[in-house]
């Protein structure tokens, strides 16, 4: 960061002093201190399953308040996490006066067993056993024998556990599930085609259609979390406090990792064989068998919500392409129908953004205060949703809208809707062979579809020839959409055109602002799967329920409905075909609205210090804003010539374990840098943060001194080939490149097309149709596309995939030539030998952390051993033994090897030449592969 001069420090210091004086009055010590919380780690032995004599070890921590007995709360974590992720929430609840048991579900953290996706016989039964264990604690308040006063809370995976447990164990008194699912079949195989139930008038009610389109990107991301190796098992002798009656003994604890590894094929990671087989089937075919549908249904809260009658707080995120509003909407309807009480909150976050923060966790605490401890005001059964921020100030607290009840539950009249006509002719859309190239709406955990498109962002992309568009007139007044819009379409086959199998389409709602402002709210898309269309071309009319959103369409903006044949996040149709898509119905688009009372931030109300509080608050805002502007300045002139630098970069998804942790690297101009690491090292996540596709959880990325944010202008100096280039097979390579460049909004002259083509070495093949290209030619075309505009920083992910040895050799030359122009190349690759020959610098990651960085020769020759290829090894050995700083000299038939201690290799070469020994090659003794395996503990590169 730039060094502040004295002139800039003094005013800031003066303001800080004023703030401190004011704070002295405002922050007068209070008599009530934070209650002390006790915490004790436990390992509980539970039955492995029905009729199974073996046991699983569940790693848990019991938090106890100052005063007991007290009501209890069972706290469950998200998928891929552990009890450690719950520590802050558990302490906060215990400070409120609750006994809290936070635990790692089987297969996660230090708990043993296999992951069964909240199997009723396994994970849900584990939770029942934990409630029984709580009932036996003297610290826990009881409703009766074996019946503790207990609530259950959790997010995502843990939220579903709370619902499943409440529906099967009547000892549960209240629950607070967050950002979770109702039906795994609908969540992972969504089908938005068809009318919602006639009696469903809630804001985000969807159709009850059969299995739809496999959400492959999210499913793969979640499945990969099950391959995380078990954490080191805890020795019971190291635990504090008394030993629980059913705690694991040392022998069982030592055997637990081996037992877990032996139970099931290695390809399943830590999953049960049934879950592994279901995922394998979906990942390879995209369609579920009846057994898979049954398995997912049994693990879905929808199987038990008809039995839930306890007070339920449902929290769902409006930036969530994994579990959207339709999931909490269905849960709310089903619990209300069963006679339970429900409060619903839609907040500004989700799996694609922020996990529930302190404000929401306080709401969870208030919920349990009232329903478990009989204290505090009644939270009620209302509905609250967060409005999207419209101003430039990101520090402004989001506004919320509240209503007395969730629309459509009980006696409520339901959701209001506005109808809107669209225009657009029926359009034939192409499904390409293999479903590739595919449009982009969002990527798991990244939410890129919510960002601007076009020249400002260029992220959400619909491919020409694969999309039909229907647009409204500019709106005369703004409209706030709160819920799931619906569109009526007509879909028909095109006689004479190829068609095979069912029809798969992806429907999206865009907000078209002025200029290039084009947004896909929430980054969400509605997949639909239709049966065989009529061969005579007669249309099939279908109602499509789009994903639930909270979004304001401003007056003057237009709404566009895009219907695409492909989407990168889903496994769509792979057989080629042409479908005609048009508008249906009289009023094409139905927009849900939920009127309510806006909530504003209340001013301070301390009776004697109100005026001082207002003044101090103003000073505080000014100081914090000034400091924040300095700390997060968009540009650091000291790094203006540095192509890439990261500082304490970290990223985690949905409250899970960090994927990247505390990564600080620096890449200089003219370097070819290799990014290496085994599977799960965090390389792709790092590249996505570098390109502004996702935002870091902590830390920063700077390119030429500019802070990287989504759509940052400096990204125009970066060329990339990360997610795979989507080329249209019926166009030539040149036409594909021109179409891509035109989509960036920059002038044709700035593309420097000829330079990029010359470096990539495509020759005359660039004028042939891409459909006739070999894999190697496609890779070269992708490189040319990344090099358009001759960016100063080139980022490539596995550029040598599919290339044969001559093509790899050519790629090596291409990258070296590009770096020779003074530009910088960053390459992520699993070909260690090629990295060693191509790159001059390395960055090695392992489990999200940096383990090595520097020149290739320094990393490979970590112990200083260097090999000299010479014409006379014997004479060379004699000469080297006389030199200072040269040790452990050894000769073979063609070379001599020595360890250099504070002696440069150039000095050794000079001594050999002086001794009449010809030196033909100098290099580190080791191989990159050997060094890599040492650095990552034997794990292989991806």
Automatic annotation (TrEMBL):
What GO molecular function annotations does the UniProt record carry, in alphabetical order?
Answer: ATP binding; ATP hydrolysis activity; dipeptidyl-peptidase activity
Broadest EC class assigned to this enzyme: hydrolase
Q: Which family does it belong to?
A: Belongs to the ABC transporter superfamily.
Q: Which gene encodes it?
A: yxlF1
InterPro entries in the record, alphabetically?
AAA+_ATPase, AB_hydrolase_fold, ABC_transporter-like_ATP-bd, ABC_transporter-like_CS, Galactose-bd-like_sf, P-loop_NTPase, Xaa-Pro-like_dom, Xaa-Pro_dipept_C
PANTHER family from the entry? ABC TRANSPORTER, ATP-BINDING PROTEIN
> What species is this protein from?
Actinoalloteichus hoggarensis
The EC designation for this entry is: 3.6.3.-
Instruction: Spell out the protein name for this chain.
Output: Putative ABC transporter ATP-binding protein YxlF
The record's keywords, sorted A to Z, are:
ATP-binding, Hydrolase, Nucleotide-binding, Transport
């Amino acid at each position: 960061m730039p060094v502040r001069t004295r002139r800039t420090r003094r005013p800031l210091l003066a303001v800080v002093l004023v703030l401190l004086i004011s704070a002295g009055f405002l922050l007068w010590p209070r008599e009530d201190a934070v209650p002390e919380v006790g915490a004790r780690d436990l390992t509980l032995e539970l039955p492995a399953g029905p009729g199974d004599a073996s046991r699983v070890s569940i790693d848990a921590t019991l938090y106890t308040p100052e005063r007991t007995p007290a009501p209890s709360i069972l706290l469950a974590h998200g998928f891929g996490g552990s009890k450690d992720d719950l520590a802050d929430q558990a302490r906060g609840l215990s400070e409120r006066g609750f006994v809290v048991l936070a635990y790692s579900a089987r297969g996660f953290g230090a708990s043993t067993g296999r992951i069964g996706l909240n199997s009723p016989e396994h994970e849900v039964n584990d939770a029942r056993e934990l409630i029984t264990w709580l009932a036996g604690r003297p610290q826990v308040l009881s409703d009766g024998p074996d019946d503790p006063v207990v609530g259950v809370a959790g997010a995502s995976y843990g939220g579903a556990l709370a619902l499943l447990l409440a529906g099967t164990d009547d000892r549960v008194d209240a629950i607070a599930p967050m950002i979770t699912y109702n039906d795994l079949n609908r969540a992972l195989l969504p089908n938005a085609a068809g009318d919602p139930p006639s009696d469903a008038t809630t804001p985000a009610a969807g159709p009850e259609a059969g299995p739809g389109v496999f959400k492959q990107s999210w499913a793969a991301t979640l499945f990969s979390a099950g391959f995380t190796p078990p954490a080191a098992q805890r020795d019971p002798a190291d635990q504090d406090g008394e030993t629980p009656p059913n705690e694991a003994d040392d022998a069982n604890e030592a055997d637990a990792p081996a037992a877990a590894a032996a139970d099931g094929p290695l390809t399943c990671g830590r999953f049960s064989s049934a879950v592994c087989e279901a995922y394998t089937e979906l990942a390879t075919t995209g369609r579920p068998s009846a057994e898979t549908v049954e398995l997912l249904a049994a693990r879905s809260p929808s199987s038990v919500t008809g039995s839930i009658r306890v007070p339920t707080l449902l929290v769902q995120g409006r930036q969530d392409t994994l579990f959207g509003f339709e999931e909490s909407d269905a849960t709310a309807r089903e619990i209300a129908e069963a006679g339970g009480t429900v409060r619903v909150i839609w907040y500004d976050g989700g799996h694609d953004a922020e996990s529930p923060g302190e404000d929401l966790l306080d709401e969870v605490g208030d919920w349990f205060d009232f329903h478990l401890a009989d204290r505090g005001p009644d939270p009620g059964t209302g509905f609250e949703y967060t409005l999207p921020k419209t101003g430039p100030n990101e520090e402004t607290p989001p506004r919320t809208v509240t209503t007395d009840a969730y629309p459509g539950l009980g006696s409520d009249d339901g959701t209001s809707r506005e109808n809107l006509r669209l225009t657009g002719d029926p359009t034939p859309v192409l499904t390409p062979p293999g479903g590739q190239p595919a449009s982009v709406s969002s990527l798991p955990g990244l939410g890129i579809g919510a960002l601007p498109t076009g020249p400002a962002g260029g992220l959400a992309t619909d491919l020409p020839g694969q999309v039909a568009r229907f647009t409204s007139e500019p709106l005369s007044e703004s409209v706030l959409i709160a819920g799931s819009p619906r569109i009526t379409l007509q879909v028909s086959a095109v006689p004479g055109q190829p068609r095979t199998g069912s029809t798969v389409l992806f429907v999206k709602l865009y907000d078209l602002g002025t200029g290039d402002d084009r947004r896909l709210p929430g980054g969400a898309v509605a997949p639909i799967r239709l049966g065989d269309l009529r061969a005579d071309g007669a249309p099939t009319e279908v109602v499509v329920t789009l994903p639930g959103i909270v979004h304001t369409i401003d007056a003057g903006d237009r709404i566009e409905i895009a219907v695409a044949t492909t989407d990168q996040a889903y496994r769509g149709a792979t057989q080629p075909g042409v479908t005609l898509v048009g508008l249906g119905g009289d009023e094409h688009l139905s927009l849900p609205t939920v009127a309510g009372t806006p909530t504003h931030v209340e001013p301070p109300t301390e009776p004697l210090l109100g005026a001082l509080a207002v003044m101090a608050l103003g000073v505080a805002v000014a100081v914090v804003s000034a400091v924040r502007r300095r700390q997060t300045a968009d540009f650091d002139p000291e790094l203006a010539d540095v192509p890439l630098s990261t500082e304490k970069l970290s990223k985690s998804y949905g409250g899970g374990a960090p994927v990247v942790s505390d990564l600080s690297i620096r890449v200089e101009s003219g370097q070819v840098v290799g990014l290496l690491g085994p599977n799960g090292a965090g390389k792709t996540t790092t590249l996505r943060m570098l390109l502004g596709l996702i935002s870091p959880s902590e830390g920063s990325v700077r390119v030429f001194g500019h802070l990287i944010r989504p759509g940052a202008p400096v990204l125009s100096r970066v060329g990339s080939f990360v997610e795979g280039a989507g080329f249209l097979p019926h166009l030539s390579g040149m036409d594909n490149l021109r179409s891509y460049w035109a989509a960036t909004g920059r002038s044709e002259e700035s593309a420097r097309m000829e330079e990029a083509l010359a470096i990539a070495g495509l020759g005359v093949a660039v004028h042939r149709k891409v459909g006739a290209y070999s894999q190697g030619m496609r890779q070269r075309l992708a490189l040319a596309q990344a090099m358009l505009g001759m960016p100063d920083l080139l980022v490539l992910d596995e550029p040598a995939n599919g290339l044969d040895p001559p093509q790899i050799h050519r790629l090596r030359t291409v990258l070296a030539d590009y770096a020779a122009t003074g530009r910088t190349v960053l390459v992520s690759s699993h070909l260690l030998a090629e990295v060693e020959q191509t790159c001059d610098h390395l960055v090695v990651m392992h489990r999200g952390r940096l383990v090595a960085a520097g020149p290739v020769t320094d990393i490979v020759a970590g112990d200083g051993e260097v090999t000299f290829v010479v014409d006379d090894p014997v004479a060379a050995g004699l000469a080297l033994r006389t030199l200072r700083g040269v040790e452990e000299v050894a000769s073979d038939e063609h070379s001599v090897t020595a360890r250099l201690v504070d002696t440069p290799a150039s000095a050794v070469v000079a001594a050999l030449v002086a001794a009449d020994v010809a030196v033909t090659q100098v290099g580190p003794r080791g191989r990159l592969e050997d060094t890599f395996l040492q650095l990552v503990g034997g794990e292989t590169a991806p």
